[in-house]
Every structure is written in C-alpha cells, then in structure tokens.
TrEMBL record:
NCBIfam families: PolPhglucPhase. InterPro entries: ATPase_NBD, ROK. PANTHER family: POLYPHOSPHATE GLUCOKINASE, ROK (REPRESSOR, ORF, KINASE) FAMILY. Keywords: Kinase, Transferase. The keyword Translocase does not apply. Pfam families: ROK. Coiled coil: none annotated. This is Polyphosphate glucokinase. Belongs to the ROK (NagC/XylR) family. GO terms for molecular function: kinase activity. Gene3D superfamilies: 3.30.420.40. The keyword Transferase applies.
Length: 262
C-alpha cells in the first residue's frame, strides 16, 4: 500500500509518498505556498494541487495546525476561522477521492520522531515541541500519543506562550539567540515544572538552527533537535494513515480514516 503524506504548514503545503517502514520519502516532495487567508476552500485547493503531482497512492495522511477530533477541525489559531468545526477529513476525502486520515501537525511530527527519529526507543514521557508559526506540542508515554495537547497555548507571564517563544515571533521581533534561548527556557521550564518529561524533542523551522541556541538553554530536562526536520509532518501523517487503515487495533488516536463518499 502506498501512502501520501501532506503537511499543511504556516507558509507551505508540502507532500510526498512515504515509505512507512523506513520513515523516508519515496519521491521528491512537492510544495505550494499556503494560501492567505488560509480558509477551508483555498487550503483544499492547495492540498489537491499537491496531491495531483503524485499517482498510484491508496490513502492520504494530512496534518492540520490545530485540534482535530474525529476528523473535525476544532481550532484555528494560525489559519482562517472557517476551519472551526469543519468536517475537514470528510471534505479532503471527497476532494481527493481517497481515504484520508487527518491529525494535528505536532502530533504527526512527534509520531514520526518517535517511530524513526530523535524519540526512537525512548520510554517514559517524552514531549515534542515544534517552534514555528505557532508552538505545537505532542506528548508520548512509552511511545503512545496523547493527542491534541495544545500546550503551546499555556499562559506564561500573562501571555500565550506561542506569542513569547515561537520562531515567527523570534523573526518578527528580530531577537538575538541569547534572548530567544531565554524565552524558550522560560517556556520549557514551565512545562518541565508541570509534567517532568524525560526528554524534549524540538522541531519546527528553528530546529535547523539548534546549534545557535540549544547550548544557551537553561533547563534540567535533556533537549534534542528533531532529526527528520522538514519531513517529520509528511512522514508522521503517512504513518498515522497506515495505522488507521490497519483498523481499530492499529488506529491512530484522534484521527479517523474517512472514505470518499462515506
Ligand atoms: C495550534 C496547534 C498547532 C501549533 C503548530 C498552534 O497555534 O493551536 O494546534 O499544533 O500551532 O502549528
């Protein structure tokens, strides 16, 4: 079975067929800019444009930058409000004519890191944190995902954490690496106090620049950079779609397979 993974990000919609056994892309990925405003209809068009570049796939895994419960998108912090309560998995399945599994972007990236990357063979509680347009989080206990955690919206010093420490804010405010490391430390130490994870895996755009600010982080929990970088969302979405296709026993929590027309 061939599975297409598609990642809806703040600046781009990217996709490729995925080897779900090795956790690798089977073809060069194709990217289109995320439409602005990122409303349901225009993002559907962008996803369909990416999907038409590939053929011969059986099902599709798609990431979404918000809460997804039973294929319905519940929040829209960094996309258009038309996504709130949209039956998105069904709409994608009808548009693409294939079964679709839809899940939160950080959950997908974390699933890929846990299966193939920085979180492989790690037991206990580990947390994926994506620092990009927003802050995405995913929690795994002994490799099992607790979906839709949304800890990027914790309140820190009276502010939504993603307005303090996302990569978008670092760029917009032209923060030095020292200042940014201080903010990320402030955020991670708050999470550390609440949850005591064994490991933080940092992904998102800024993970490529880990050497610039990781040495400046002041927290007790070990921190590692995501290893799958830009492809974690695509790979995690495809792995989740495969688990969904395997049926209830192998189904990814929080994501449902939706068959076209159903
Ligand atoms: C959203 C999360 C998402 C994160 C990264 C946040 O604003 O609430 O659901 O995972 O951004 O895209």
């Amino acid at each position: 079975m061939t599975i297409l993974g598609i990642d809806i990000g703040g600046s781009g919609v990217k996709g490729a067929p995925v080897d779900t056994v090795r956790g690798e892309l089977l073809d060069e990925r194709f990217r289109v800019p995320t439409p602005q405003p990122a409303d349901v209809d225009s993002v559907m068009d962008a996803v369909a444009e990416v999907a038409t570049k590939f053929d011969g796939y059986d099902s599709v895994g798609i990431t979404f930058p918000g809460v997804v419960v039973d294929g319905v998108t519940r929040t829209a912090a960094n996309v258009h409000k038309s996504w709130i309560d949209a039956p998105a998995a069904r709409l994608f399945a009808e548009r693409l004519g294939k079964p679709v599994t839809l899940l939160n972007d950080a959950d997908a990236a974390g699933a890929a890191e846990v299966a193939f990357g920085a979180g492989r063979d790690q037991s206990g509680l580990i947390m994926m944190v994506t620092l990009g347009t927003g802050i995405g989080t995913a929690l795994f206990m002994d490799g099992v995902l607790l979906p839709n955690t949304e800890l990027g919206h914790l309140e820190i010093d009276g502010k939504d954490a993603e307005l303090l420490a996302s990569d978008r804010v670092r760029e917009a405010d032209d923060l030095s690496w020292e200042k940014y490391a201080h903010r990320v430390s402030r955020y991670l130490s708050h999470v550390e106090m609440l949850l005591s994870p064994r490991l933080f895996i940092i992904g998102g755009g800024v993970s490529k620049k880990a050497d610039k600010y990781f040495p400046l982080l002041q927290i007790r929990t070990p921190v590692v950079a995501a290893t799958l970088l830009n492809n974690a969302g695509i790979i995690g979405a495809a792995v989740s779609a495969e688990q969904a296709a395997a049926g209830p026993g192998g189904q990814h929590p929080g994501a449902i397979p939706v068959h076209a027309g159903s």
